[in-house]
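User: Fold this; tokens only.

Assistant: Input:
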Amino acid sequence: MTRHAPAEKDDTERTAGRRGEGIHVVVVGATGNVGTSVVLALAEDPSVRSVLGLARRLPRWTPPKTRWQAVDVEPGGVDLAPLFTGADAVVHLAWKFQPTHHPAETWRTNVLGSIRVFDAVAAAGVPAFVHASSVGAYSPGPKDRAVDESWPTHGWPQAAYTREKAYLERVLDTYERAHPDIRVVRMRPGFLFKRQSASEQRRIFAGRLLPSRFLRPELLPAVPDLAGLRFQALHTDDAAAAYRAAVVRPVRGPFNLAADPPLDAEALARILDARSLPVPTAPVRAALAAAWRLHLVPASPDLFDAVLRLPLMDSSRARAELSFEPRHTSVEAVEDFLEGLRSGAGMDTAPLAPDAKPARRFAKSRGQSV
């Protein structure tokens, strides 16, 4: 099992609020799938005094205890340190999935932007930092057993998403040694779903050419049963509860987050009232690659390769130290997401805007934040 450094003696006092009035938390990337759930989880915690939500585009959504500021984390943006000054914790969630055809652009936001956040946390003297890593940071691993947080985090090098997540794990290795006074937490969730994220995730992975009305179960008679298609899912609200616990508890290090049971073609077929059909992987990948090259779908074939190689994760550490007990099974998380797809669900933030709203609202945006 992985060994983790114990929390420093004063971590609890520092996380409890510098002025004894409850804690102030800054959430970077606060308007997407994970961010909206984390903001709500923090706002509902009586130990949290206030939340500052940072996003590229300000929302009209007004959760309790929360104020907003428009910020771009990319190089050349505003100095982040003044925004973090006085915070008891910073939660970093900002991420750009697209454009997948231009990985240098996602690298600029996801890697260089994240490093700017890391440096600003240190410059502002923030005592606690929670970073959104991912199952995608893990090297290829087993599908028949679960691995703990000691599994190598080298990602799948061909896919931009997994490559970027793995690179930031290496950056944080050095960062923790350079800043032992900062309590660094790395959250490694499986695939995150909720009803309100459905429209965003459809746009990110399936593209705008696939209308939600075509996502009814009766139009998908079979689920391809591919070698390696076994993965873990989690309701975003359950992940947010773990993030909240990581903010207010004196914990450090990485945490796997996943709900039971692991999902495969048979489980997905039951959810969709379809049947599973064994299919060779090569022709499916070839079809996806052709569609991606023609800009018909935004999800790259390299990400498809990565998904088939992800290990299953053991969440025992999160259960023990974060009291992580998902309220939703993985099946319920996917069902909630599918209901959102069929209804075009969303929220009043730019990333989560429902499909019913005009597409021109997104015409100038080539990326989405988590």
